[in-house]
Amino acid sequence: MIGKAIRLERIMNRNTGRSVIIPMDHGFSLGQIYGLHDMPKVISAVSEGGANAIVLHKGGMVRHGHRKAGPDIGLIVHLSASTSLNPDPNDKVSVCSVEEAISLGADCVSIHINLGPPERVKDDRGGRRHIPAVHPLGHAAARHDLPPPW
Q: Quick one: CATH architecture of 2-146?
């Protein structure tokens, strides 16, 4: 699919096939993080430093995804999240759909899965729901699978 190829080139170096991706989605789970208060400035800095893409949640995309200046950088929307305020901070839930991420300009979507004991099986529900929706739309997807301990 030509659309998927175009989007993959936005998050990878087309000459090397490698990518430097900077996760900037931790403000959702941890709250405001020192140094990340001026997101457009930080995004420009990582882009100028050679990063190919950044990972944001949809709130970050809406507020900071289109800078209108500076070097281009690929945008990856993280579809799942948790918060340190939850009694179970590893309880990932869906916070964005594939279609919504595409409408925000995402080049790729990602979902976080915690592997481990049976109570973590519910985490994969988001992956089974979101990942199949990506392919017919000609989009790229990434899974973040983490083994215990988290």
A: Alpha-Beta Barrel (3.20)
